[in-house]
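Quick one, C-alpha cells below:
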C-alpha cells in the first residue's frame, strides 16, 4: 500500500498549530503560512463564518466590542 502524500498543511502548518496555546496564536500561524487576503464566494463565506462561530462558541470567547471592526 502506498503512503499517503503529506500536504504542506500536514508537514508544516499542523505541527505549528499543535504548539499553539491560544486561538490568537493559531490565527497568527495561518496568516504566516497562507495568503488569506482573497474574496470568498457565497457558499464558502457561509461555511467559513459558521466554522468561526462554532470555534468562538467552543472557547466561550468574551466579546470585546459591540461595534463593527470594518469601516464601511
Amino acid at each position: 500500500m502506498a503512503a499517503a502524500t503529506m500536504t504542506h498543511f500536514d508537514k508544516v502548518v499542523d505541527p505549528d498549530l499543535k504548539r499553539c496555546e491560544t486561538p490568537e496564536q493559531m490565527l497568527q500561524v495561518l496568516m504566516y503560512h497562507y495568503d488569506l487576503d482573497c474574496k470568498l464566494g457565497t457558499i464558502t463565506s457561509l461555511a467559513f463564518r459558521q466554522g468561526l462561530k462554532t470555534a468562538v462558541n467552543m472557547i466561550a470567547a468574551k466579546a470585546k466590542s459591540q461595534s463593527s471592526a470594518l469601516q464601511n
